[in-house]
Amino acid sequence: MAARGNFSSRIGFIAAAAGSAVGLGNIWGFPYEAGAGGGAIFVLVYLFFCFALCFPVMLTELAIGRKSGRNAVGAFEALGHKKWNFIGKLGVLSGVLILSFYNVIAGWAFGYTFEMAAGNFEVTEHFRAYTTNIFAVGSYGLLFMIATAYIVSKGVSEGIEKAAKVLMPSLIIMMFSLIIYSLFLPNAMAGIKFFLLPDFSKLTSTVVFNAMGQAFFSLSLGMGTFITYGSYIKKNDNLIGSAALITLTDVGIAITAGLMIFPLIGFISGGSLSGVGRGPELIFVTLPHIFGEIGPTAGAIVGMVFFLLLCFAALTSTVSLLEVPVSYVVDEFKLSRKKAAWLMSGIVYLIGIPSLMGNGYSSYFSEFITYIGADQPTDFLSFIVNIANDSFLPLGGALMVFFAVHIWKKENMEAEIAVGFENYENSWVRKYLRFVMPVLLPGTLFIIFSMIVLSTFFGF
Ligand code: TRP
After folding, report:
1. Which of 101, 328, 416, 428 qualifies as a cystine partner to 355, CB 3.0-4.6 A?
2. Residue 152, ligand 1, Cβ within 6 A
3. Does the CB atom of residue 21 touch ligand 1 within 6 A?
């Protein structure tokens, strides 16, 4: 199995795993979800879910991956439960679907980097026109996919790890420079207050659900990313420490993204925070407009840096999304890594074309499906989001935790966690895992999955 590759160091693994977690979900998704979900109260619920619910799922994936030393599908067979590998197959399918639309959005961000550099802030007014121009955005998306495939084709330590070790620190430096810049703008503090001081009257079930979904997606859980990455790490690593570091980095970057963006919103709204688009259009419509207001040269620089950092964050995520199916094909069908990477990325790019066309170019894909009880049609990209992110990920997470505790057996999982962590027997983590993993965690995830399916697709 030596040919599969390994991370060369613990820090390399952490960079790659945190790179997977940190992505569009943190820098694009998190601020707009927080903005729409009442600000700080959303942040609080999100933090709770990351640690209480998501952390054990990450640990489960890592333990399955390291013990089996196989891909997301083969892992179940390697542990002696081939019948359960449908969980891994669901994960590979989720990965392919998520990457197909994720790459489209990454392509927009990539294109925006050049628009900002050229001082073309009016893309703001014409976001629809921008995404409708599918030959341009499709080419940016294609370049992004090629970069992803190239990194994955180079292998675990020479491609994924090396790229993450360059991209992640650059990302952090760019973010901190922008925070310092935005904090000095007039009315920055109004934005910070909204983001950090919770208003408990804004706590609703929608906030709770969205925070949960955001936490799960942001931590790359439920599809075997960490089974795959876990299969490349050394036996003596401390899994609990690694999972904690990855979670902290991901949460830290999400909060940092908020600290970067909310001062800008405070600035543009003159401190009132009203009249500013805070939905999904936050990044692609509101921010470029703000960059334009900052001034032609400064705005172009800030805007370019912002979208470049968004691309860097997205690239380590697309790499991890591609690695799940690639690792599966390499292990199970004995394809060379190079072939697997280019083949899978080609397939994923084709699957992403309807998502590309469904943002204004083709009315068929823009109004693809109307769910039962809905009065508006849903576009193709959102349809895939509803299926893969909103439904498959919590279902996959529930199944993996159930599998680990009841099929693989909790003693075996605990034995794997204890490797590299001598005090596990007496640790509070063990007590906590014993408390949540058997019923509470898989049950909650399954209920969330059911409620999402019923409410999204069937109008309950
Ligand atoms: N977590 C990444 C983000 O926040 C996206 C991502 C990468 C992902 N791999 C994943 C999401 C696996 C779910 C599952 O943008």
Report:
1. 101
2. no
3. yes
How far does the centroid of ligand 1 lie from the alpha carbon of residue 155, in Å?
20
Instruction: State whether the beta carbon of 214 lies less than 6 angstroms from ligand 1.
Output: no
Ligand 1: nearest atom to the Cα of 221: 14
Distances (CA, A) of 187 to 183, 278, 369, 389: 9, 17, 42, 36
| Residue 220 CB–ligand 1 contact under 6 Å | yes
Atom nearest to 389 CA in ligand 1: 13
Report CA(87)–ligand 1 centroid distance (Å).
Answer: 18
Tokens of 392: 């498959």
Which domains are delineated in the chain?
A: 10-357 (1.10.4160.10)
**How far, in Å, CA of 460 to CA of 282, rounded?**
29
109, 348, 358, 363, 373 from 379: Cα distances, Å: 20, 18, 6, 9, 16
> Measured from the CB, is residue 148 less than 6 Å from ligand 1?
no
Total-model pTM? 0.95
Q: What distance in Å separates the CA atoms of residue 114 and residue 334, rounded to the nearest whole number?
A: 40
pLDDT in tens, the chain (460 residues): 436 889 999 999 999 999 999 999 999 999 989 988 889 999 999 999 999 999 999 999 999 999 999 999 999 999 999 999 999 999 999 999 999 999 999 999 999 999 999 988 876 567 888 899 999 999 999 999 999 999 999 999 999 999 999 999 999 998 998 899 899 999 999 999 999 999 899 899 889 988 999 999 999 999 999 999 999 998 889 999 999 999 999 999 999 999 999 999 899 888 887 766 666 678 888 888 888 888 889 999 999 999 999 999 999 999 999 999 999 999 999 999 999 999 999 999 999 999 999 998 999 999 999 999 899 999 999 999 999 999 999 999 999 999 999 999 999 999 999 999 988 999 999 999 999 999 999 999 999 999 999 999 998 8
Choose among 318, 319, 300: nearest CA to 308.
300
